[in-house]
């Protein structure tokens, strides 16, 4: 079997070695504001305001989107250990507020596969916890619906539940669970 | 030992130099009993979100301003690779879709500015900022990875390095160093994808006069410690030799294994044992990365470091804590 990367590595290290030997060793690029002495004046901030950085929000039309788990800002090793799957990103449609981004994932505890886990994070969350143990000890958690500030899930035993992202608590009011999640399950 | 590793960040590493460092690293590892406890600042690494990019620098400035004092390596991780609508290099940002890499290269300058503005940082010596590509989805093409890395390299040289050098020419609190980074994770990324990123990165490193290093803060799960597996795909299609190349074999490489669980350090010891068995030098791991709020059984960065020392039998020069997306832990 030929490993593409290994073959590339070998050939490329050779190329780089040649380049390194012939390079002039110029490690320092030109300075900002030629003709002025940075030491003689107050330190200047970066030259271009970030507000002019031409960032165009690209909010997906679906307020909750099933997304590859690898795309979420959560460490891959833990995601594998927790057997995370059915990962969702929520970005409200039409919103230009880029701070309104959150994600949810379901899985199980590596210490006890009957203990379901729900992962939730958003940039402006107040809590310090991101991994929540789902009540009931019902096994693996599958997220089947995500909307801004709440998520609906099923556990392996068949039970359904809802997690309130605003309060970072599991919803105990079954009527509310039925209203938020019932039609989608 | 810290000073020895700093040289790997600051010098372009030719093959000759690489060989020297390999020998030096191996000798140090063999002769000096590893210190269990980490001594030095625990650097604070962060995810860069789209909200950070449009926030007039405030959040990223604060992250620089509030960083600890002292020599350190910081990872600012902005998202996986993407190609913009115009065919340019991009980061698939958290909350803002595919953004050009130059937006990120601009934004991270505010970290340096924030660090510089805090008088408590005076005398911090070398401070390295790794602008990092997140792990991928295995749905990108090798060519996309290459384009993204080439663009990132150029943007860092044209923007971030210029600003770092502007600061360095004044009365800096530290000597600011710009680097790249890739979160190469065997469970997500395929070897050919990471290879694409590295080929793009090294293309630019070989052709531009400014030579940047990169930090690999990925994760690996191979458990084979002999030469029999060296070239075999034992971990999600990855061979130990391929991970070795990412962590150490490529010019300018620096390694930051993610340690969230106390069983993982042994994996990195196995990788070095396999390397030794195959006649290769040991990887002198540059640092340890620990992340908060993940549910891993390592309770904090310092404990993760101590467990790495015990399991991998090395005392890396650096330790970093990558915060959660929420930035609340």
Description of the structure:
- The complex is a heterodimer of chains A (185) and B (329).
- With 185 residues, chain A is α+β, with helices and mostly antiparallel strands.
- Chain A has helices at residues 4-22, 76-81, 174-181; strands spanning 64-67, 85-90, 102-108, 116-121, 131-133, 141-147, 150-155, 160-164, 169-170.
- In chain A, strand 3 and strand 4 form a beta hairpin.
- Mean pLDDT of chain A is 73; it is low at 1-40.
- Chain B has 11 helices and 10 strands.
- Chain B has a single domain, classed as Alpha-Beta Barrel (TIM Barrel), CATH 3.20.20.
- The model of chain B is unreliable at 1-31 (pLDDT under 50).
- Chains A and B meet through helix 1, helix 2 and strand 4 of A and helix 3, strand 4, helix 5, helix 6 and helix 7 of B.
- What fraction of the residues of chain A are assigned to beta strands by DSSP? 15-25%
The major β-sheet of chain B equals: 10 strands, mixed
Rounded to an integer in angstroms, the radius of gyration calculated over CA atoms of chain A is 24 Å
Under CATH, the topology of chain B can be stated as TIM Barrel
Helix content, binned percent of chain B: 40-55%
Task: Please trace the helix and strand order of chain B, writing H or E for each element.
Answer: HHEHHEEEHHEHEHEHEHEHE
The overall strand count of chain A is: 9
| DSSP, total strands of chain B | 10
- Number of folding domains of chain B? 1
Which spans of chain B of ≥5 residues are poorly predicted at pLDDT below 50? 1-31
